[in-house]
Amino acid sequence: MTGPTDETRQDGRCHGPGNSASETDSLLENRGGEAQHVDEDPPDGRERWNHPRVNRHRYISVNLSFLILGMHDGSIGALLPYLERYYAISYATVSTLFLVPFLGYVTAAFCNSWLHRSVGRRGIAFLGPAARLMGYVPMALHPPFPVLPVLLVIIGFGNGIQDSAWNTWVGNMHQANELLGIIHGSFGLGGTVAPLIVSAMVARLHLEWYTYFYVIIAVVCIELVFALWAFWDATGAVYRQKLRRDAVGGVTIRTVLSEPITWLLSVFLLAYAGAEVSLGGWIPTFMIEVRHADDFLAGVTATLFWLGLSIGRVVLGFITGRIGEKLAITGYLLLAVVFQLLYWLVPSTVGAMCFVSLMGFFLGPLFPAAVVVATKLLPPEYHITAVGFAAAIGGGGASLIPFAVGAIAQNHGVQVLQPIVLAVLLFLIGVWLAVPGGMRKGGLERA
């Protein structure tokens, strides 16, 4: 396979003890381990989505990857009611499906730096979809329930390595807020279409729950071929050459974790991802059990949440950087709290659909803004390790908080979703206010 061009420029953002790596030939390295030609840097030293030219294809493949990430996260919640019936299991048992991907994300966080040095972004482009297929193909065969958590750990690893790698790559580009907003908008789009597909296939066409995975397997196969082609020249040798050229090395994960901002943003992403996936995952069950909506309408409500999230990431991504991340995210969080209260306290199905959409809209920009803040407050050589660690902790929030909702709902009902999410949103405001830099634009750069 030959990539679109070999005008490749890599971000050397990965580091660990001993920056040497094996030069042996492999599926994921070019012959002889020699680096490809590196295009000249743009005038401001930062890559753009369309410069070098090969970045156009790569940026498209990253959007496809995030679409699949969204389809995964958006489908679990939509499938919960059907999984409960199919396997005859409780809230607490089925909610373990939210918990286990955290193990895959944590493994990805500790492997990411080494993977970049060894096999480059080409390796990430191959291993992410490959791990997903290793999970989705058996799931399509509807195995016994105890097998599902194991498969989700493997999927979590594939999602984790791509989540941190692509966030870091795009987060270091020119106009990072806008570009991150678009890729996270693709995530939201995936989360939007997944409940619709599940509802259409299972509730309307009366197919079994596992037929959804036929669809996602097909999309992942397309991603595997296209991403591997787009990143074919982005080998480990190219990555290591960039590290040497920038004289970057010797930064270990321990060094990165000694930075308070790494932990602050990790906690922020943990709480944010927990709120996002709790809402996206438990909205269908809440609408069925508490608001007495039918299965299809419950799925549509979840779709509207993900749609609002997707639109908010794209639209507000063009506003956030212009008024400053600190002020913008504070305002978005306050508005999200308002719509969360309305969703909880106004007992109307139509109102719930509106409030959920608007809550998703204002929650949308939070993750990409946190990545931009990390790239502004941390040295460049810390970026991949710091963002990878923060993404893993965020994956923990996306696992632990929805699991907690399910465990508590087992005894107290799914209505516990609302006060838990409200508490998490208020906690997010407190964490965000602790981020260095004032509310004025440019405050982060001066922090």
TrEMBL record:
Q: Where is the composition biased (Basic and acidic residues)?
A: 1-14, 31-50
Question: Does the record bear NAD in its keywords?
Answer: no
**Top-rank lineage group of the source organism:** Eukaryota
Q: Where is the Major facilitator superfamily (MFS) profile domain?
A: 58-439
Pfam families associated with the record: MFS_1
What sections of the protein cross the membrane? 62-83, 89-111, 179-203, 209-232, 263-284, 296-315, 327-344, 350-374, 386-410, 416-435
Q: How does it sit in the membrane?
A: Multi-pass membrane protein
One Gene Ontology cellular component annotation held by this UniProt entry: endomembrane system
User: What UniProt keywords apply to this chain's record, in alphabetical order?
Assistant: Membrane, Transmembrane, Transmembrane helix, Transport
Which residues does the annotated region (Disordered) include? 1-50
Annotated Gene Ontology MF terms?
transmembrane transporter activity
Q: Where does this one sit in the cell?
A: Endomembrane system
Indicate whether Manganese appears among the record's keywords: no
Family classification: Belongs to the major facilitator superfamily.
Q: What name has this protein been given in UniProt?
A: Major facilitator superfamily (MFS) profile domain-containing protein
| Organism field | Ophiocordyceps sinensis
